[in-house]
Amino acid sequence: MPDKNLIKKFKEIMGDNVWTDEKDIMCYSYDAAPGEQCPPDFVVRPETYDEVSSVIKLCNAENIPIITRGAGTNLSGGTVPMTRGGCVLLTTGLNKILEINTEDMYAVVQSGVVTADLAAAVAEHGLLYPPDPGSMKSSTIGGNVAENAGGLRALKYGVTNDYLMGTKFFDTEGNLIISGGKTVKLVTGFNLNGLMVSYEGLLGIMVEHIMKIVPPPQASKPMMVIFDDIMNACRAVSQIIANKVTPATLELMDSFTIKTVEEAAKIGLPVNADGLLLIEVDGHPAAVEDEFQIVKKICSELGGEVHVANNAEERDKIWEARRKALSSLARLRPTLILEDATVPRSKIPEMMQAIKDITEKYNLTIGTFGHAGDGNLHPTILTDKRDTEEMARVHQAVDDIFDTALNLGGTISGEHGIGSAKAKYLEREVGKGTIEYMRRLKAGVDPKNLLNPHKMGL
Question: For the whole prediction, is pTM greater than 0.85?
Answer without folding.
Answer: yes
